[in-house]
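Record ABC transporter substrate-binding protein, 295 aa.
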Amino acid sequence: MAGAVTALACVLGLSACVTNEETGHPAGWEEIAPPADPQVQALVPEEIAVRGSISIGTNPPFAPFEFKDSQGNIIGFEMDLAAAVASVMGLDLEIRQQDFAMILPAINGGTIDFGATGFTDTEERRQGFDFIDHLYAGIQWAQQSGKPPVDPDNACGLTVAVQRTTVAETDDVRPKSAECEARGEKPIEILSYETADQAATALVVGRADALSADSPITAWAIERADGKITTTGDVFAAAPYGFATPKGSQLTDAVAAAMQVLIDSGDYERIMAQWNITDGLVDQALINEEPADIR
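=>
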């Protein structure tokens, strides 16, 4: 980043943050605002086109997907990507901060147009929503540097920090804890936090033995923790991440078509590279992990 995190105070135990506040965008960042594409504009639902803007729900901090800079602006690679999608649609982007667990219901309720908050595209979520996938990543555990190795597959009796209701909690740590109990071993003590930075801080200051999080989140926290934490084990459970849209909607097709324009122009790759994300990129627009057939 262009500046340091406030948080090395956290590392010294003076406050509770690791990635909670950044001074701004990465060095060399520039806004990428492609021109509107008439074919994509024709796919935009009429009520959104008339409004002239499209709204997204997001839940910072979840750096580098989304987080707040020192002025309180919500930034991150997912915000840049959503803004570029809106630009291709000929629309302004309206960012709304919401509780993570309330974003999908808000899409169903029609109070926001789509969700952009580090959603893992899972079979369960696909029952009610479509996902326009923009990145493949997995789960990566971390531990304090210099401590005995923590094995993510043998963590019975340890304390593991997670962000509440994320896949790291629901699909990784809680099932592993249940397996421990089924074998007659001590369960994992799960520390569930509202935000990813709070979970990372719990590891840095020693409240937790390990952190389970999406691999980009873990990498971001490690980079900003001044060597206090490091990865342990390999990345596993690789999965697609994407924007959530109403199931079977015209908006799904419009967002996917805008993504294809960004991929074809190279703007998608440039947006991700500005955040040092070069692995796990998609090479075509995907809806629920299937090639989008929308043009």
